[in-house]
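Side project, low priority. Logging it here so it doesn't get lost.
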Amino acid sequence: MAKNNARHHGPEGAPPPPPPRKRRGFKLILLLLFIIILLLVILLLISLAGYGPGAGLFGKDNDPGSSETSQSQVIEESSGQDTVYAQIKVSGGKILMDGKEISAAEAAESAKALGSDVVVRITDDNATQNAVEELKSALDAAGLPYTIE
């Protein structure tokens, strides 16, 4: 028997084992995943810095030119008369005035009873949009100016 200098270690006549497969597809997927994660991190940083669509953290709009303004939100200074402020707090879906839960219509009536130079200060304490909109509508109907803090 002649010595065979071939590199395979199987029985004579058996084909050599196939060469190891290169994992090119796996490396490509890892590279694409890394690029996508990098882009998401960059977009998050841009958003947190206040640039881009929606500006600010999680889409809060800080651009004063793009906020909606109603006629009652524009407060003009009265000539020589002191302004009276009515404090109304909106917490969740509840409207609170002097610590008591009231309806939007009752809040507008109570504020109007304070006089002709009353300005309503609405304090937003994790308020729902529906509760704030209901209160704003009632204040608009009563002709009362307001600010939202």
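Brief comment: The first helix runs from residue 24 to 49.
Revisit when time allows.
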